[in-house]
Specification:
The protein has about 130 residues and is mainly alpha-helical. The protein has one domain (about 30-125). Helices cover about 35% and strands about 5% of the residues. Strands 1-2 form a two-stranded antiparallel sheet. Helix 4 runs antiparallel to helix 5. It is globular, with a radius of gyration of 19 Å.
Length: about 130
């Protein structure tokens, strides 16, 4: 057997459309996507080895947003930073509460689970002080 094996063809994978933050457009939009702190992907690529740069199955990934605008500008990240999205802690909590409430009204989320999500947002340090 030849090691590494010879690549004889590549099968292209289709992935969902995304918006400017890199998060998916389709489906039920959880508070994690409505009040995002980063980009969530349903796919990932191998970082090293023979498969470096290639699709590595449906292992999802998470790419956090920069904490501040200056950090974002320094790294060239086109996505808004956490502080640009949520100027205050209350603004972040309100966004989570709104998203969770919408899902409860649509019968996609239980009220107890929504309250837990809102409580986690209240206890968070978003945006960082």
């Amino acid at each position: 057997m030849e090691q590494p094996p010879k690549v004889v063809r590549v099968l292209h994978s289709l992935v969902p459309r995304v918006y400017a933050d890199g998060n998916e457009l389709a489906g039920i939009r959880s508070p994690l996507l409505e009040a995002p702190l980063g980009t969530y992907t349903g796919w990932n690529v191998a970082a090293a080895g023979f498969e470096a740069g290639r699709f590595c199955g449906n292992n999802g990934g998470y790419i956090p947003f920069a904490a501040t605008r200056s950090e974002r500008m320094a790294t060239g990240d086109p996505r808004l930073s956490v502080e640009e999205r949520y100027p205050t802690h209350d603004a972040y909590v309100a966004k989570v509460k709104e998203a969770a409430g919408r899902l409860v009204a649509q019968h996609y989320l239980l009220a107890d689970d929504a309250e837990r999500m809102v409580q986690q947002a209240r206890e968070s340090k978003v945006p960082a002080p």
